[in-house]
């Protein structure tokens, strides 16, 4: 399956050829064995009219699966192209959570048309899920799960699963509720199959289970699914009534989105929700300029510090040439620490209460790194700059100033880098924002202050 | 379940209290309702002797689950503390892929003891999986899956699942093989349950399926599981014989590790495999120093450029104070572009063949960002630096030099930032290494060259 890009390019060409020659039967045979996600990818590579054609060629069920995998722009085009009966057919095939995802991306006119043609049950479900906030667990759950009663036998339960199963998102786990729809237990299909026909559900169900609430953060829920290796998590309301489930495939999507968001924030980009090549120039510009602007303006302080020490710099001009190295190394050291801490925070490995332990660790790492870098730099300055490049202004004293500054800068950078994300988290901000660019700007200013301080002490400027 | 940290701290205290007062029955009742991952976390928080105690209190099955969730250091301690019969019991309860994960982390002496006490079947399975390279799909698969024959009826299949199911990692998907063990189809438990008892497997199985090979990269396999929303993927050897399956929980772990590795590489850290607080100072130092050293030495070029233009700087000293702002903004612009491209590459949204499209997009974004930043900076320099701070050396000409440089720097930075990761990928290197620190170092030197070029043109230095 993981053949070279060539295979995919060939496939696109063949499909284009078949479309242009109107060989629809052959096209259908070519597409049928493919996975829905791959057909959606193909539609994306083809021209605008292709999706509706592909869509009409495929059997209803596969067509609906492909529809779910398409980009929202293409979904909108398709819906606008659908006849009313086609729209109704697709909606009938969709799982509820997929239908909600689609509705969320559509303009109001299209939403109205969708809701008009959905059956009353689906319409109710969509409206139910739509009322939960964007990042909440409620917004990613589905209400199509198998529910059982405690008093049923295994035979009853299997019969119920056989009857209602085709419409459920998963039958791998069933949920046992009482008369008030409160969740009291759960049951995997494995337990059901391995039990005797006349065992009673209440006796074999698992009563120790983990449930999440509709308003829990969707990332926390997804992390829990991953941590406990579950295939689904039940979602309850504040009165412990079962309202839905979150399945592992949706959790994986959430985790992937959240990681992308974190990485974007760490690179001073405002997070977006579209793939890179689908985001327009203007949108990309809007996501990138605010942080650039803020960081540019805050770099002014570094400039002011430099101006302030202008006379010292004039007296010993060679000092200037080591500024980029010092601020670069400081920035990189800080980035290493902040990145390590931010990632550990988001994986739940580190908490604010670990602050002292983190600082103590980074202090020791910083000293080791700093001394090591300083030693290398000292040798380099005397051997290469002074001796090989014959620059007499690189005296041992200057080398001493640069190397002492290097150690102090690395230590400061690592301490700032490891503590700011923890503080941000404690104060309720997103730690990812305290990453590389922000730390770099602070460390730039710090390293200059240290540099001129050390220089004035050693060289008496 | 997502209560505040306090709840967990209270739990640790209660467990410590019960252990010290030897109230083992109460301790057992306290632990039983918890998830294995949470008990493992508790063991980690308690002192060294606690795990073996907790382990002996729990029922065999739960104890084995907890064992799997422990850190390898604790697993080693436990194995060393186990009697031979305890070791055998645990090994019997483990799924094969978990047993392999454990064996991979243990020193040779412990491995020998494990293999001695595993039953022959398990021992064979462990040795089988151990022979696959570290990052391959074979190394994360399990060989415990349900296999069926084409000629079986649904009733036969269900009987087989009931009989062999308890030892299988998952029964949600069964795999149909021919007499040479070649994979010819698969079947979800849903299909089985919804079929008639006397349907023949060959008629209802899915013949269009995706299989991966033992030597495929584990990240590619995990991404495929996520992309196609599968619960498991079959793994075949070069002759298409079914040798194992990869389940979604293992895929999630792989994806999480790979993301952490990417993030670490992007922050110039050599990737490690232990959680932040579990990594020793020396190990952290070893992971961080190489890149710092390399980047420090390459920053020398920037220093050489500065020295080269020393006389120009002397003639117009105010220019120096804008160097940090220019190199900072350049670095941040480059980081934004490289990060966006690296993430898209790892999500499979962008390929090398998109190079021109990416460059064209970044060029336009860079011009928008650059012009916007330059305009803001021009106003700021004249209003604040010249007028408010009364610095007469900030002339409109100087502002022009700085702002023109800013635009050129942003454009260069974005172009370098977006193209280097794509080139790295094409050449078979890891694109994540082409991230922030590396780009910053290149852009630093570039921005200085542009700066002095523009300055000498406009100011005639």
What does this structure look like?
Two copies of one chain form a homodimer. Chain A folds into three domains: 5-131, Alpha Horseshoe (MgtE N-terminal fold); 146-247, CBS-domain, CATH 3.10.580.10; 276-459, Tetracycline Repressor, domain 2 (Orthogonal Bundle). Chain A is built from 21 helices and six strands. The first copy, chain A, has helices at residues 5-20, 24-31, 36-45, 50-57, 60-69, 72-81, 84-93, 96-105, 108-117, 120-130, 154-164, 189-194, 201-204, 218-227, 248-266, 281-308, 310-315, 323-346, 355-388, 396-426, 436-459; strands at 146-149, 173-177, 183-188, 212-213, 232-236, 242-247. At the A-B interface, helix 11, helix 12, helix 14, helix 15 and helix 16 of A face helix 11, helix 12, helix 14, helix 15 and helix 16 of B.
- What form of chain A results from the Cα inertia axes? elongated
Name the CATH architecture of the largest domain in chain A: Orthogonal Bundle
Q: Which CATH C-level class of the largest domain in chain A is it?
A: Mainly Alpha
Approximate strand percentage of chain A: 5-15%
How many alpha or pi helices of chain A?
21
Instruction: Identify the most extensive interface between protein chains.
Output: A-B, 119 and 119 residues
Features:
homodimer; 461 residues; mainly alpha; MgtE N-terminal fold; CBS-domain; Tetracycline Repressor, domain 2; 21 helices; elongated
Describe what is shown at a glance.
Two copies of one chain form a homodimer. In chain A, strand 2 and strand 3 (183-188) form a beta hairpin.
Secondary structure topology:
2 copies of one chain form a homodimer.
Chain A (H helix, E strand, L loop, with lengths): L4 H16 L3 H8 L4 H10 L4 H8 L2 H10 L2 H10 L2 H10 L2 H10 L2 H10 L2 H11 L15 E4 L4 H11 L8 E5 L5 E6 H6 L6 H4 L7 E2 L4 H10 L4 E5 L5 E6 H19 L14 H28 L1 H6 L7 H24 L8 H34 L7 H31 L9 H24 L2
Parallel strand pairs in A: 1-2, 4-5
Antiparallel strand pairs in A: 2-3, 5-6
Helix pairs in contact in A: 3-5, 4-5, 5-7, 8-10, 14-15, 16-21, 18-20, 18-21, 19-20, 20-21
């Amino acid at each position: 399956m993981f053949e070279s890009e060539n295979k995919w390019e060939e496939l696109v060409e063949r499909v284009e050829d078949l479309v242009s020659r109107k060989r629809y039967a052959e096209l259908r045979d070519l597409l049928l064995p493919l996975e829905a996600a791959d057909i959606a990818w193909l539609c994306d590579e083809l021209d605008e009219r292709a999706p509706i054609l592909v869509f009409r060629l495929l059997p209803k069920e596969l067509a609906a699966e492909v529809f779910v995998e398409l980009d929202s722009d293409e979904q909108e085009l398709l819906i606008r192209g659908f006849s009313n009966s086609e729209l109704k057919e697709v909606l009938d095939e969709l799982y509820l959570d997929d239908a909600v995802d689609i509705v969320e991306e559509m303009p109001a006119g299209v939403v109205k048309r969708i809701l008009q043609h959905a059956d009353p049950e689906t319409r109710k479900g969509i409206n139910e899920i739509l009322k939960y906030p964007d990042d909440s667990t409620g917004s990613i759950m589905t209400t199509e799960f198998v529910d059982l009663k405690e008093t049923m036998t295994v035979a009853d339960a299997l019969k119920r699963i056989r009857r209602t199963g085709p419409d459920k998102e998963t039958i791998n786990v069933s949920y046992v509720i009482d008369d008030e729809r409160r969740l009291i237990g759960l049951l995997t299909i494995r337990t059901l199959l391995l039990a005797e026909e006349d065992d009673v559900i209440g006796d074999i169900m698992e009563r120790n289970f983990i449930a999440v609430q509709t308003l829990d953060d969707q990332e926390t829920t997804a992390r829990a699914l991953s941590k406990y290796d579950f295939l689904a998590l039940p979602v309850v309301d504040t009165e412990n009534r079962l309202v839905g489930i979150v399945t592992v495939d949706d959790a994986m999507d959430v985790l992937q989105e959240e990681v992308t968001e974190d990485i974007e924030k760490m690179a001073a980009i405002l997070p977006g929700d579209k793939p890179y090549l689908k985001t327009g120039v203007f949108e990309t510009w809007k996501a990138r300029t605010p942080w650039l602007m803020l960081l540019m303006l805050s770099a002014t302080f570094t400039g002011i510090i430099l101006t302030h020490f202008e006379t010292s710099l004039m007296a010993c001009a060679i000092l200037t040439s080591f500024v980029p190295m010092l601020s670069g190394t400081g920035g990189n050291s800080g980035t290493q620490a902040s990145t390590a801490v931010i990632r550990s925070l988001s994986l739940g490995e580190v908490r604010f209460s670990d602050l002292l332990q983190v600082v103590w660790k980074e202090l020791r790492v910083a000293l080791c790194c700093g001394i090591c870098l300083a030693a290398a730099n000292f040798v380099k300055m005397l051997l290469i700059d002074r001796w090989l490049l014959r620059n007499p202004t690189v005296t041992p004293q200057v080398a001493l100033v640069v190397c002492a500054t290097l150690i102090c800068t690395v230590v400061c950078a690592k301490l700032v880098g490891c503590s700011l994300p923890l503080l941000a988290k404690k104060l309720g901000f997103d730690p990812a924002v305290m990453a590389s660019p922000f730390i770099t700007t602070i460390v730039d200013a710090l390293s200059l202050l240290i540099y001129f301080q050390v220089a004035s002490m050693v060289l008496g400027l």
